[in-house]
Amino acid sequence: AALALDNGLARTPPMGWLHWERFLCGTDCATDPRRCVSEQLFVEMADVMAAEGWRDAGYEFVCIDDCWMAPTRDEHGRLQADPKRFPSGIHKLANYVHSKGLKLGIYSDVGNKTCAGFPGSYNHYELDAQTFASWGVDLLKFDGCNSGTLELLAEGYRRMSLALNKTGRSIVYSCEWPFYLRPVQQPNYTEIKQYCNHWRNFFDVYDSWSSIKNILDWTALHQDSIVKIAGPGGWNDPDMATSIFVFMSQLVIGNFGLSWDQAVTQMAMWAIMAAPLFMSNDLRHISPEAKWLLQNKEVIAINQDPLGKQGYQITKDKNFELWERPLSGQAYAVAVLNQQEIGGPQNFTFSLTFLGNGLACNPVCSIQQVLPVSRNWGVYSWVSSLSVEVNPTGTVLLKV
């Protein structure tokens, strides 16, 4: 694996909350203040994250996405927040977020305009990095719209990485670099990992099962090139984005488009893939079931495992997929995914010799089910088979 960006950050996949998928580019605070991208939204979300267990579960970043800016830079050429929607400015918002024991993320673009048409960072990389650092920003999500040529795209990502490090402030650097390269050329992940803490690979995540399914299918298809590069300091982001309708590696659990089984699948598979966990939902109004799933300590422990290995698909049999992720302490996370969308629960039986190249259960292993409910399966020998019942579009997550 390539050496990671040397800023010492993102030793495990970052976790937090992001406004984009749920709140999009809402700027009409007069008509709809509760859904407007504004200072009020982030203050309220920080309050909830601190008070209702989200921070304590590991969700530490409160991230501003596109549409936070004023239409123009100030008289000194610096980015500025929209004065009506962010009357106190980003620095005071960062201070407030920090007072809650949380960190603030912000958004910009490698090109001359953001995806939504606000001022981009082209030819202002060093100035913008200094501005973000002076405000107390802790994470930069750097998009790739309006960047011109691929050479300018790459140069912009490299320059912003160096500029952020030069500020002396610890700022996680989240890139869209490989997504914008893929239509033309294979990304050089070794280089990308040397400049970025995590990077987006695939199209937008939407609040729908088809979106989650497509991300999983793409990841399995490309796992030979992306799994080996992930590790402490640099992570594959299955769907990190923000073009006009593009989002960060977002958990859309707690919104409207996923069934319970599909929500379980997203949480389980994002843990298997060692993906950054950024929720995009309204934490002020979330069901107890969604909260339980998103704050599930056993699943989060798998996602945050210090070994830092990304999981992968080891077999596919009709509608069933078997995935594993090596964990610290010679353990494995195992996911059994049922892609079928009709009918009822079905059983999938597999030999434990499949796991860990035959080593996971040699000579014996204990098996604990993590999702959809926690229960102890007991001790199995190396030559045993396991039969797992899985609901349509659902996943059973195990720790072996």
Describe the secondary-structure layout.
Elements: E1 15-18, H1 20-23, H2 39-51, H3 54-57, E2 61-63, H4 89-99, E3 103-109, H5 125-135, E4 139-143, H6 150-166, E5 172-175, H7 177-181, H8 189-195, E6 198-200, H9 209-221, H10 223-226, E7 235-237, E8 250-251, H11 260-272, E9 277-279, H12 288-294, H13 297-303, E10 312-317, E11 320-326, E12 332-338, E13 346-351, E14 364-371, E15 375-381, E16 385-390, E17 395-399
Parallel strand pairs: 1-2, 1-9, 2-3, 3-4, 4-5, 5-6, 6-7, 8-9
Antiparallel strand pairs: 10-11, 11-12, 12-17, 13-16, 14-15, 14-17
Helix pairs in contact: 2-4, 5-6, 11-13
Main location: other
Function: Catalyzes the hydrolysis of glycosphingolipids and participates in their degradation in the lysosome.
Keywords: Disulfide bond, Glycoprotein, Glycosidase, Hydrolase, Lipid metabolism, Lysosome, Signal
Features:
400 residues; alpha/beta; TIM Barrel; Immunoglobulin-like; 2 domains; nine-stranded parallel sheet; six-stranded antiparallel sheet; globular
Characterize the structure shown.
- The chain has 400 residues and is α/β, with parallel strands linked by helices.
- The chain folds into 2 domains: 290 residues, Alpha-Beta Barrel (TIM Barrel), CATH 3.20.20; 88 residues, Sandwich (Immunoglobulin-like), CATH 2.60.40.1180.
- It contains 13 helices and 17 strands.
- Helix 2 packs parallel to helix 4 and helix 11 packs parallel to helix 13.
- 50% of the residues are buried.
